[in-house]
């Protein structure tokens, strides 16, 4: 095989979690779509091609069979495998050649429900009925009229007054010694996490994350080509064995009301975690997506030089603001500011100014207090419903002050299938695979009561129970088995 042909085929990506035959077939499809492989071209011998792609020959043959069924390839004894691109519909149409980073990121499954949703336990978002939209609109208009400079380009770090208010509140609630110079305003905490990846993570670097973990970090791990070290969540502690003796670039952790399990890391767990993470040389990303309630010192208070704290107003106020922050050592903030400039220049100043005025009035505290009261009522309702309807299903979380329940399904259960059946029964839940850093279909589902009316919770759990224990008869005999 010539060097040119040899270079057409690159090994499949280890970070791509799709089945290997699908990855191989997609690579050959892309070569045909770009015109690199043309009608009548022969593929290399299967053993040689499998070796180049980094897969076994059986995987390659499955991919070839799939492409034969599509009409893209023809395999004949004595003639090898040839491309038949001109016989396919749409040949000649340009197809975009996406980066390997985009190809590693999977699309979310947004399959619509055939049934109306009675209880949506899948959303971890604030109930916006408690937010004073009219007052905020007035503040937005007032601040915009008074300060014409808000409508111009500005420092990527963000509005100084808002940064100072964030630093003051963090010092008050977490004990971290931040000032406005330690804060950078972002377009939501998700952008903050992306900027930290841009500043610290190169392809192939090791990133340690809890397992299960926040779903927003999973596409970033794939996009940036990071290798993953898992830190299994074990109640209030983390299994830290994956950090032992390893060099790690970034460690991501949610010590307060961890998403999705709802558990909070205890004081000894925090001490052990910092000791283990410190030995790896990593920057530690502490995600404080919600206000801390444990009263324990934050990781940033104990290790301010190494810990970068993420926060967001999306959970405290409304998601549409897309306003968050990074608080960290000035060296980290400077690097992240460079990444911010290269991404979107700045977070819009008018919304920053209005939020700062809203915080100065203390209006956010009233919003949080009203939501907290309602969340407590919903949390108690869900705990009572689970005890009554699904007493055999254990769960983590469900503690005072937070809305998350992590249901541990029987071993071998498909969390994805459980979520699908629940949706067919009019209940939305989040499957465990959404939170698994390696994309495994774990036997768990997450329930959130942040947006479920209390009066719908019992009916929602009853429908969930019917979905979980739904049985299917099999033609081979009279035995029926659970299919969750």
Explain this structure.
The chain is α/β, with parallel strands linked by helices and 484 residues long. The protein has 3 domains: 3-103, Arc Repressor Mutant, subunit A (Orthogonal Bundle), CATH 1.10.10; 119-124 and 370-482, Aspartate Aminotransferase, domain 1; 129-361, Aspartate Aminotransferase, domain 2 (3-Layer(aba) Sandwich). It is 39% helix and 16% strand. It has 16 helices and 18 strands. The strands form 5 sheets. It has an 8-stranded mixed beta sheet with strand order 4-11-10-9-8-5-6-7, sandwiched between helices. The chain has a 4-stranded antiparallel beta sheet with strand order 12-13-16-15. It has a two-stranded antiparallel sheet with strand order 1-2.
Biggest sheet overview:
8 strands, mixed
Number of helices: 16
Strand content: 15-25%
CATH architecture of the largest domain: 3-Layer(aba) Sandwich
Q: Count the strands?
A: 18
What structural class is derived from the secondary structure elements?
Answer: alpha/beta
Proportion in helices: 25-40%
Radius of gyration: 26 Å
Taking all residues together, what is the mean pLDDT? 88
Contiguous low-pLDDT stretches (5 residues minimum) are: 1-6, 87-91, 471-484
Say which CATH homologous superfamily of the largest domain is assigned. Type I PLP-dependent aspartate aminotransferase-like (Major domain)
CATH class label of the largest domain: Alpha Beta
Any idea what the shape is? globular
Number of domains: 3
CATH topology of the largest domain: Aspartate Aminotransferase, domain 2
Euclidean distance between termini CA atoms: 49 Å
Q: Can you list the strand order of the major beta sheet?
A: 4-11-10-9-8-5-6-7
């Amino acid at each position: 095989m010539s060097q040119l042909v040899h270079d057409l085929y690159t090994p499949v990506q280890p970070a791509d979690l799709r089945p290997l035959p699908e990855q191989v077939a997609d690579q050959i499809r892309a070569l045909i779509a770009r015109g690199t492989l043309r009608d009548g071209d022969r593929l290399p011998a299967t053993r040689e091609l499998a070796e180049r792609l980094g897969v076994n020959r059986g995987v390659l043959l499955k991919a070839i069979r799939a492409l034969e069924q599509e009409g893209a390839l023809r395999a004949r004894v004595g003639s090898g495998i040839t491309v038949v691109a001109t016989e396919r519909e749409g040949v000649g149409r340009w197809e975009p050649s996406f980066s390997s980073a985009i190809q590693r990121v999977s699309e979310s499954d947004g399959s619509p429900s055939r049934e109306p949703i009675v209880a949506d336990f899948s959303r971890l978002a604030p109930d916006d009925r408690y937010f004073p939209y009219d007052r905020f609109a007035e503040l937005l208009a007032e601040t915009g009229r008074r300060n014409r400079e808000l409508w111009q380009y500005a420092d990527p770090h963000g509005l100084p007054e808002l940064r100072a208010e964030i630093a003051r509140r963090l010092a008050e609630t977490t004990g971290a010694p931040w000032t406005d110079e330690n804060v950078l305003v972002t377009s939501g905490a998700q952008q903050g996490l992306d900027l930290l990846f841009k500043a610290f993570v190169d392809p192939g670097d090791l990133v340690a994350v809890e397992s299960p973990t926040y779903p927003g970090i999973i596409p970033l791990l794939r996009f940036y080509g990071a290798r993953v070290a898992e830190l299994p969540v074990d109640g209030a502690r983390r299994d830290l064995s994956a950090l032992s003796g390893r060099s790690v670039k970034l460690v991501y952790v949610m010590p307060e009301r961890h998403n999705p399990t709802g558990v909070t890391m205890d004081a000894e767990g925090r001490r052990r975690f910092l000791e283990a993470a410190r030995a790896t040389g990593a920057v530690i990303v502490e995600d404080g997506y919600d206000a801390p309630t444990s009263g324990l010192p934050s990781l940033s208070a104990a290790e301010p030089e190494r810990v970068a704290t993420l926060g967001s107003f999306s959970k405290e106020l409304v998601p549409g603001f897309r306003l968050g922050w990074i608080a960290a050592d000035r060296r980290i903030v400077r690097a992240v500011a460079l990444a911010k400039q290269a991404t979107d220049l700045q977070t819009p100043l008018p919304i920053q100014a209005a939020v700062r005025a809203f915080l100065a009035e203390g209006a956010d505290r009233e919003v949080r207090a009203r939501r907290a009261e309602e969340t407590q009522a919903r949390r108690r309702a869900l705990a009572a419903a689970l005890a009554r309807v699904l007493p055999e299903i254990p769960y983590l979380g469900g503690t005072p002050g937070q809305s998350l329940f992590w249901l541990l399904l029987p071993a071998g259960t498909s969390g994805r299938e459980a979520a699908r059946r629940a949706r067919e029964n009019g209940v939305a839940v989040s499957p465990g695979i959404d939170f698994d850093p390696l994309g495994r279909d774990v036997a768990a589902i997450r329930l959130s009561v942040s947006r479920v009316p209390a009066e719908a919770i019992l009916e929602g759990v009853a429908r969930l129970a019917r979905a979980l224990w739904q049985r299917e008869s099999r033609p081979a005999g009279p035995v029926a088995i659970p299919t969750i």
